[in-house]
Design goal:
4-stranded mixed sheet, alpha/beta, 14 helices, 50% helix, 337 residues, binds D-xylonic acid
Length: 337
């Protein structure tokens, strides 16, 4: 063999060796991701980014496929399937999972998080890690926090301009005692319900209203069956990007690394899309005829005060320590901003 040919053979072998170790430890994996929202939601872009990242890093052997509109079951059902190892992934709100990890209820406390920068710092920092550790103990590997976002109220009765306007309004809430209490305390007739049932319950008039971020209201077409949108921003809830721990434990360290890295890479895309599309959704909801009202700062303050007892009422189930840790972390974040 000529010296130059030998050189290029060596170069090819070296290049192969540089990529091969990963390939050797990375097997064919087909991952199904359950989503309650529709594919038009920014989670569609998040899952697409995660899928292309994983395909690229694995030489195409790891595939990630999104299922939309609750096709694989609701948030809670899908999460239980992860715990029992019959499904790989779910992107779910934290709120319906408080029966599994009660400490997650901290995110449901009214008016806890003030803006997106606070949310990112809290979730991507030590506090978010501590919540992920609790999820792991429950059989769920949290790969990243994506954004669901600030929640606003829609209904078919009248604009909500003060907390008294909730009186007698039949409001769907997530399957979560903190949300249930928050809205009952405002005088609403709060009804816990899985996300997948909300549209038809609104359509048939079984319920009058619901609460979600603008982008979810729009991509789930709630505006077709709701007249009023009130910008209450009463809570910021995150999405958890969960992986089945029983399945995770059968994966190699390289495969796990790819999935962790790609969920975090997709987080940037998902959050940015969510923020852009939230603003766009607001415009479109208005254009399609929803009556949108903002609340005065005084009214927001009254609602916040009205909601204050919820913190004490749920301290025992969430854990006072967890609430204190979140508040201390937020205080430090605000001081640094
Ligand atoms: C989608 C839900 C939704 C949540 C809800 O599966 O239930 O209202 O805000 O985004 O997780």
């Amino acid at each position: 063999m000529s010296r130059s040919l030998l050189g290029s053979v060596c170069a090819v072998a070296l290049a192969a060796a540089l990529t091969a170790p990963a390939a050797a430890q990375v097997s064919e994996r087909h991952i199904r991701v359950s989503n309650g929202v529709n594919q038009e939601h920014p989670n569609g872009l998040g899952v697409a980014e995660m899928a292309s990242c994983a395909a690229e890093k694995s030489g195409g052997v790891i595939t990630i496929t999104g299922f939309w509109g609750g096709a694989l079951g609701g948030d809670l059902e899908a999460t239980q399937a992860l715990r029992s190892g019959t499904q790989e992934m779910v992107v779910t709100s934290s709120s319906p999972l408080v029966g599994i990890v009660p400490e997650l209820g901290v995110f449901d406390l009214p008016f806890l998080i003030g803006n997106e920068a606070e949310a990112d710092a809290l979730l991507d920092g030590a506090f978010g890690d501590a919540m992920s550790a609790k999820l792991e103990a429950a059989g769920l590997v949290n790969l990243a926090y994506w954004e669901n976002g600030f929640r606003n109220t829609t209904n078919s009765r009248h604009p909500i301009t003060r907390w008294e306007d909730f009186e007698g309004v039949k409001m769907r809430v997530m399957q979560n005692p903190i949300f249930l209490d928050t809205f009952s305390n405002m005088g609403a007739n709060a009804v816990p319900m899985a996300f997948g049932e909300v549209f038809s319950a609104l359509e048939t008039g079984a319920i009058d209203g619901q609460e979600n971020p603008f982008v979810t209201i729009q991509t789930s077409k709630f505006n077709e069956v709701q007249d009023y949108l009130s910008v209450t921003r009463h809570a910021y809830t995150p999405f958890l990007v969960l992986f089945s721990k029983p399945i995770w434990d059968t994966y190699s360290a390289e495969e796990q690394q790819i999935l962790s890295d790609c969920a975090v890479q997709a987080r940037t895309v998902q959050r940015q899309a969510n923020r852009d599309l939230n603003a766009q959704a607001y415009e479109e909801l208005q254009a399609t005829g929803m009556a949108i009202n903002e609340l005065t700062p005084e009214e927001v303050e009254r609602i916040r005060e009205r909601a204050q007892p919820i913190y004490a009422n749920h301290a025992a189930t969430i854990g006072q320590e967890t609430i204190d840790q979140a508040m201390a972390a937020l205080e430090a974040i605000r001081a640094a901003q």
